[in-house]
Amino acid sequence: MMTSRGAKVACREHPDSPLIEDYRAGDMICQACGLVVGDRVIDVGSEWRTFTNEKAAADPSRVGAAENPLLDGHDLSTIIARTGMESGEGPKYHNRKNISSSDRTLMNSFREISNMADRINLTKTIQDRANALFKQVHDGKGLRGRSNDAIASACLYIACRQEGVPRTFKEICAVSKVSKKEIGRCFKLILKALETNVELITTGDFMSRFCSNLGLPSKVQKAATHIARRAVDLDVVPGRSPISVAAAAIYMACQESKTPKEIGDVAGVAEITIRQSFKLMKAREKDLLPLDFQPGETTTTEKLSS
């Protein structure tokens, strides 16, 4: 019912007539006489319909996932194997994904980093930096014997600090599968293995987020920031971590509205640690409080003293 001129399919009766392609049925139809001159034609169009008025909208044709430069093969390679000839049967073709154990480890760890980042609302930029750090550690083979989950968690912690949005070890631990102690060990080993460092964290790195999570007004955050900065400058709380100082400063600034336990739950600091830091700051209260600070009738300091 049809003739072929080289690679061209044409109608036998009207070889010069253009053909119409029926995408739904997969047929090629002669425009002059309606003869089906080719059937089961492969549809090379998109599988999806796009309901949009934007002419420049991307066509979601199946073209595979984007390449990942962190993987050795950039993406998953596919090998077409021809089998079944020895048994006398016709040839059978099978797709076999060929992925190395190294890439498999990287992919699993990248997935874990993505899951952790999503749970604490971290940006794609931080995820990418954490992935790159894990790749460096993995290629360097400096942390052999350590859990990949612990390394991934430590890389995410480092990435947060390098991107200027630090998270506490307890916050990372809360979304990780490993202990805070193991994350801390990997953190130190990674810095040593990569011969890099991170900026020191300060009380100001956490103050805004802690106050926001506690639902405190901006004037309390401003007072707490001032108190914490003065406490560090005057060396009122030597040896205390910036997170503990920030929590104690919030406790001093917010008066009776929040308890040490409520603040500790948000900051990841033990209640007793907040009270201890606060007592050190209490003796220098006049030097720490802002000049325009107006304490209530019953301040937190008076409550602790009684």
Overview of this structure, please?
The chain is 46% helix and 11% strand. It has 306 residues and is mostly helical. The strands form three sheets. A three-stranded antiparallel beta sheet has the order 3-4-5, with no helix packed on it. It has a two-stranded antiparallel sheet with strand order 1-2. The protein has a two-stranded antiparallel sheet with strand order 6-7. Strand 4 (27-30) and strand 5 form a beta hairpin. It starts with a strand and ends with a helix.
Strand arrangement across the biggest beta sheet: 3-4-5
Ends apart, CA distance between termini: 103 Å
One letter per element, helices H and strands E, the order comes to EEEEEEEHHHHHHHHHHHH
SS-based class: mainly alpha
Give the amount of beta strand, in percent.
5-15%
Mean pLDDT: 80
Tell me, what's the shape?
elongated
State the helicity in percent bands. Answer: 40-55%
Structure annotation, total helices: 12
Q: Brief overview, please?
A:
The protein has 306 residues and is mostly helical.
Pick out its properties.
mainly alpha, 3-stranded antiparallel sheet, two-stranded antiparallel ribbon, 12 helices, 7 strands, 11% strand, elongated, disordered C terminus
Topology:
Layout: E1 2-5, E2 8-11, E3 19-22, E4 27-30, E5 36-38, E6 77-83, E7 92-98, H1 101-119, H2 124-140, H3 148-162, H4 169-175, H5 180-193, H6 204-214, H7 218-233, H8 242-254, H9 260-267, H10 271-282, H11 285-288, H12 300-305
Antiparallel strand pairs: 1-2, 3-4, 4-5, 6-7
Helix pairs in contact: 1-2, 1-3, 2-3, 3-5, 6-7, 6-8, 6-9, 7-8, 8-9, 8-10, 9-10
